[in-house]
Amino acid sequence: MTGSNTDFLLAVEALTVSFDGFKAVDDLSFYVDEREIRVIIGPNGAGKTTVLDLICGKTRATSGSIKFRNRELTKLRENEIVQAGVGRKFQTPSIYDDLTVFENLEISYPRGRTVFGALTFRRDAAVRERVEEIAETIFLADQLERRAEFLSHGQKQWLEIGMLLIQDPDLLMLDEPVAGMSVSERVKTAELLHRIIRDRSVIVIEHDMKFVEDIARKVTVLHQGRILAEGPMSDVKANPKVVEVYLGH
Amino acid sequence: MPSAPAPATGPAASPAARDESTLFDTKEWLAFALVAAVILVVFPLCLDAFRLNLVGKYLTYAYVALGLVLCWGFGGILSLGQGVFFGLGGYCIAMFLKLEASSAANTKIQSTPGIPDFMDWNQITALPWMWQPFHSLPFALLAVVLVPVLVAFVIGAAMFKRRVGGVYFAIITQAVAAIATILIVGQQGYTGGINGITDLRTLHGWDIRQDGAKEMLYFVNAGLLIGCILLAQFVKRSKFGRILVAMRGKEDRVRFSGYNVANFKIFVFCLAAAFAAVGGAMFTLQVGFMSPSFVGIVPSIEMVIYAAVGGRTSIFGAIWGTLLVNYAKTSLSESFPQLWLFGLGALYIGVVMLFPDGLAGLWNSHAQPTLDRLLGRRPTPAVQGPASGATQPATLPPQTAAE
């Protein structure tokens, strides 16, 4: 169960998760560098989302190791993994409908995360400035007072990205960030992602190949819980196995 | 991106621009002033001693409803066992009062003088160890709050750390209420059984059965209730309150924002238990006894109905809901005692189906706009809220883009 210590930001080794005997992720190993943008692609059911679930603690690994800065994540609770510096965006927008955009971002601000910290939390100038700065980045500066449930689908996706940004994670995991977006929203999101991936590592799951080519340096192709291919986009695209199971469709 | 419609905030959303450092906004100030004025001035002036004591009894349930607003209304944690905490608080103070009433002189006809009468009837010949510390008033007062909080902590830790929630949690709390009743009734030598602990007389020599004492206790009760309202309002206005609302909708997201959700749930459950316990203790003091009929499933559900009728997300609604349902209960059960339980059930179904936000919801959607119009103010954004949702489809992406 103990993985080796490495210089990588994230080292996933021999990771396996089995649901009633079905191995959704099977003996998977991969490494992510500091400031690397990694895109995970693969057909439906390949285990892409499960890998993110395992890293962020939503699903518990059956065996194997996930080390973040040489710290074992498989033993930590979700909130501890977040505090270690891992942020996760879910496939469907996961935001707080009953709260305003401002409050959504404020809750994600990394301070006062204990019970008493939350009771004594003050909305001071630092918090306001940071929330406004993030809102500007995610194109929602004029929506701060609006209840999140009234946002459009694309705006909700941006809000969730903003909620992650305000945490300032070292590793950002995005599950299909442009899914369900209009063309114009997609362009804006690509621009947004380009800006936010500069000073951190990012793992992105995406089906939109144009988008993938646009942002990816290195691509991992998953198939049936295993790695089918890994490397620069051009190599992966030329790989006959990848074409057969995924790109050919 | 199409131009955005005017910002809309519903009643649950607090505008971020508003000064967060004050405890109340203008509307909440008015609501608070109204509750305080009615409880502290109108009732004592208009009601005779008997009715005032009755209202004082109703208000002890308002503590429970207040706790449920935080726990259930904001946090989404439905507890069907708040009667347990109400009862524990009530029993703790009743034990002290009973010991004081069972002096050797008062109980000299018993075979063992100096112990509570029901123990003597059950052939118990010495005061049980768990009763011993209740000779001390400071201990009893501390126990009123600490014992229920400890029980809530154990239940909360056991459930929330294991991520038991929703309906399952509600059923378990209901089972706890049933177990508590069975234990109290079954162990009558130690608890007074089905009759409870009765014939309470004095508090440190002060006769609590006199009208003057009852009036005094009414004001103590009202003062404590206002204190609890302020505390609840503080929790609501803090980031903790917003996290409760966030947890109600998206518990997982709260975890992935770096919070330990279980700790927040345990805290709010313990706070609700503490409120209920203070209510229970004040009940015992004002009514003069405590019995398992305030602990079990039926009273616990009744307490949930008070909060539901008042509006489960409204701190002030909880107070009005409690008063209204209890007034109806007293009036109805005087004339049709058998019908009350049916009436209560119908009331609960009616509230859930027809106006889920209770009295507070009706106030916000009907009375408030009228009031605003009369005062020449803009209608509240609450009515505009849903309407702005209609513009939403325009901003939704075309389906083809997703493919």
TrEMBL record, chain A:
It comes from the Bacteria. Coiled coil: none annotated. One of its GO terms (cellular component) is plasma membrane. One of its GO terms (molecular function) is ATP hydrolysis activity. Residues 10-249 form the ABC transporter domain. Transmembrane segments: none annotated. Keywords: ATP-binding, Nucleotide-binding, Transport. NCBIfam families: urea_trans_UrtD. This is Urea ABC transporter ATP-binding protein UrtD. It comes from Lichenibacterium minor.
TrEMBL record, chain B:
It is a multi-pass membrane protein. Keywords: Cell membrane, Membrane, Transmembrane, Transmembrane helix. The keyword Ligase does not apply. InterPro entries: ABC_transp_permease, ABC_transptr_urea_perm_UrtC, LivM-like. Residues 378-403 are annotated as: Disordered. It comes from the Bacteria. Its main location: membrane. One of its GO terms (cellular component) is plasma membrane. The keyword Membrane applies. GO terms for molecular function: branched-chain amino acid transmembrane transporter activity. The chain crosses the membrane at residues 29-47, 59-81, 137-160, 167-186, 216-235, 256-283, 303-327, 339-356. Residues 389-403 have a biased composition (Polar residues). It holds the Pfam family BPD_transp_2. It is found in: Cell membrane. This is Urea ABC transporter permease subunit UrtC. It comes from Lichenibacterium minor.
